[in-house]
Amino acid sequence: MGASDFSKLPHIGESLLRKEDYRFLTGAGQYTDDIVLPNMHHAVFVRSPHAHAHIRKVDKAAALKSPGVIGIFDGNDVAADKIGGLPCGWLITDVNGQPMKEPPHPILALGKVRYVGDHVAMVIADTLENAKNAAELVDVDYEPLSAVVNVLDAMKSGAPSLHEAAADNHCYKWAIGDKGQVDAAFANAAHVTKIDLTNNRLAPNPMEPRAAIASYNRAGDDYTLYVSNQNPHVERLLMTAFVMGLPEHKVRVIAPDVGGGFGAKIYLYAEDVCLTWASKKLNCAIKWNCDRSEAFLCDAHGRDHVTHAELAMDKDGKFLAFKVHTDANLGAYLSTFSTAVPTILYATLLAGQYKTPQVYVEVDAWFTNTAPVDAYRGAGRPEATYLLERIVSRAAWDMGLTQDEIRRRNFITEFPYQTPVALQYDTGDFPQCLQKANELHDIAGLEARKAESKAKGLVRGVGYSSYIEACGLAPSNIAGALGARAGLFECGEVRVHPTGSVTVFTGSHSHGQGHETTFAQVVASRLGLDPSQVDIVHGDTGRVPFGMGTYGSRSISVGGAAIMRALDKIEAKAKKIAAHLMETGDADVDFANGEFTVKGTDKKVTFGQVALTAYVPHNYPLDKLEPGLNETAFYDPTNFTFPAGTHICEVEIDPNTGVVRIDRFTAVDDFGTIINPMIVEGQVHGGLVQGIGQALLENCVYDRETGQLVTGSFMDYAMPRADDVPDFRLGHVVTPCTTNPLGTKGCGEAGAIGSPPAVINAVLDALAPLGVKELDMPASPSRVWEAIRAAQK
Amino acid sequence: MQVQLKVNGKPVTIDAPPHTLLVQAIREHLKLTGTHVGCDTAQCGACTVMLDGRAVKSCNMLLAQAAGTEVTTIEGLAQADGTLHPMQAAFKECHGLQCGFCTPGMVMSSVSLCKSNPGASSTEIRELLEGNLCRCTGYQNIVKAVQQGAAAMK
């Protein structure tokens, strides 16, 4: 079934209330820390208090005598058991054709610690309290070393060196685009706009901290790992095949209810492997629940880029060429997808919505004494959008154009469109998104609102951001050619029960996105059922055939498409059964609204009758057809999907205090087909607030000298709260994706991608009359106040 | 140390060390795991319960301090037959939750704030919810839910 027919089915486009809500609203959700297993012990990790140090000795003697302790392990114990280090899932090849440098990433530090929070030892005891007490008695003798936390410091000669395998802290230099063509275009440009900016480091902070329980069953020589994770099959694949050398069928990974992910729960973490390994050594179940303070230290962070870029234009503000140099901070070790974020997921988006003929991007990636940096909501695409949309608005101001006019002059309007940085956009309508956003925002009333603000002694400004992202990750062959070490397809199984109800097993994982409702709508609409007759199972390698999980706004476009493929198979087989029941040829049977009919007759059988026949095959073509109605499909996309839109932010600033208030915020997005508008709007709200958080509040700060994390708790790291953000004005343009059977593009990250430059452009627009030209995120009151004072000197 | 209190309408006696936090007693002793722990600095509000009708962060007080009080957790909010409390129903109808982790604390805070500020405006609701963090929803639908729940509670 194609996207056009799909979008017309019943339940598609309906804001059905969520099936999963009842358990969450009544306290019946089951998150990892809610699970108690028999013979369960508790693990606490001894973490490095130093950003960089040699480990002279780990003395466990006193701790081992502490009450309740059953085991303490350090890096030497891991090495003795030949447990490998954590793998990086994406190999980047540098500009000289050499593989990136890949230093070892041990699950417990061996000889050296490289960031505050690095894992030194694991203490296991009968109670959490006993484990904590014993952990304090583990005596680690450190020889502290100088640390480097900023990417610009890491590249200096003589900077502290983290890894023998990368003595200069350099992981790779990577580039995309035609530098010669870009340089030629710059030589003929009427105007060049330049920008230097920092994309601030963020702590993802899903509200449920990470947690895991590993258990080992000696009778079957198998393991079960409960873990708060976005992709249990990937977790299992990485852990068994790459680290522990275990056969996959001996490990079951269950990601039960998961309290948010935002990228931070994609990765295989050291704790997960340590627990699994130790559960066999100690023959028991072991739980680890991350404290929030611990999460700040050791969850993978996001962003942390420093960039210089230049945009060449003709005299009318048409873009001729764009060149970019970015230094990316990878942290102390390579996390699972870290290397793809500042390259494949970033540079390929730098054409944006514009027909810039030439783009050249060069990226240097560096190790520092900080927590590993990896994908965080948007992953590379927010960094690209922030850069591009900042420089486009700056260019508008340089050229004396409005922010929307410069965008209109450069929008891509014909599809498919091949960008100069590898991607081919299948569809979109960028001018319509912009126009609709202008209308919804009431941009016509801006001048009057500015005057009102001025009368109150305040300044007001407006900022635009027209973003595009590549979602629906990803065609496996393309990803493989770009260095991915895994496939990026998805799997779905549709199990029709004898009474006609359905259970669907999906490799996607829901940790807030509402799959149990949206996916049920898809299946119910195809089979003519009520969504209450369809249950969705996810997050268990023991029940779901396979899966690549949830990230990159891929669930509906890839996971949903796999289910659609399985439904195609169900429908094809069911038609054969129906044809038999109605004594006609397969080709004469139609299926719609849950009924099979014979063309040109009034004969019909219901889906329920066919399901029952499949399982009670008394009158059944057993010579030609197997009984049962249960189909599995794998779907590998042929292209990325390209959600896009325009966000407009309007701020009011008090120049006396530097406080920025978002007065209104409009987002018009094109997500292709929308299955459940209520859920989609919820995703946009959440994404926008995360983006606004980055723009105004959030900043992960390490002390430059000591490498200590300064923002290590919710007391120091400013999370957006209800009174920090406004209600949003949302609109949609729908150009269905042409490469998947649903026409969907994905909506999970758009808010976080589009909003940061809209906010900062608005702040800069408001502050322009005060002489402020540049400002880095977060635009906190103190930074804004200082910028105003500096400009007035 | 033995502490007696009422939880969700039932008298309970909890035998626990004196330094036991109320949230530990609720989650570990009473196995009421709907009350969550999302931080260690009393900032996130995921552990919010009602204590004598008032919302408190159960990570931020000792079990001993709750002796003789009446505690309501998220498990005690719906009716015995499973019918949702109007505030729970409003959260569902307004899509005021996504991953569900902050939800029990958010709902308890909302019920409490509606009792003490029945006519709160959306701006006031945003201020009154300042003690509860949500990373998923962007708060807009939570505010809508609180308004709808407040109207239904009147």
| Greatest chain-chain contact | A-B, 57 and 55 residues
Largest sheet of chain B: 5 strands, mixed
- Distance between termini of chain A? 65 Å
Molecular shape of chain B: globular
What is the radius of gyration of chain A computed over CA atoms, rounded to a whole number of angstroms? 27 Å
Q: What form of chain A results from the Cα inertia axes?
A: globular
Give the CA-CA distance, first to last residue of chain B: 41 Å
Low-confidence stretches of chain A: none
- Structural class call of chain A reads alpha+beta
Helix content of chain B: 25-40%
Low-confidence stretches of chain B: none
Strand proportion of chain B, as a percent range, falls in: 5-15%
| CATH class descriptor of the largest domain in chain B | Alpha Beta
Oligomer: heterodimer
Strand numbers in spatial order across the main sheet of chain B: 2-1-5-3-4
| Sheet having the most strands of chain A | 7 strands, mixed
Q: Tell me the series of helices and strands of chain B, N- to C-terminal.
A: EEHEEEHHHH
How much of the sequence lies in strands of chain A comes to: 15-25%
Mean pLDDT of chain A: 97
Tags for this model:
heterodimer, A: 793 residues, 21 helices, globular, B: 154 residues, alpha+beta, five-stranded mixed beta sheet, 33% helix
Describe the structure.
- The complex is a heterodimer of chains A (793) and B (154).
- Helices cover 29% and strands 22% of the residues of chain A.
- Chain A is α+β, with helices and mostly antiparallel strands.
- The model of chain A has no long low-confidence stretch (mean pLDDT 97).
- Chain A starts with a helix and ends with a helix.
- In chain A, strand 20, helix 16 (515-527) and strand 21 form a beta-alpha-beta unit.
- Chain B has 2 domains: 2-76, Ubiquitin-like (UB roll); 86-153, DNA polymerase, domain 1, CATH 1.10.150.120.
- Chain B has 5 helices and 5 strands, in the order ββαβββαααα.
- The mean pLDDT of chain B is 97.
- Chain B is an alpha+beta fold.
- The interface between A and B is large, with 57 and 55 residues.
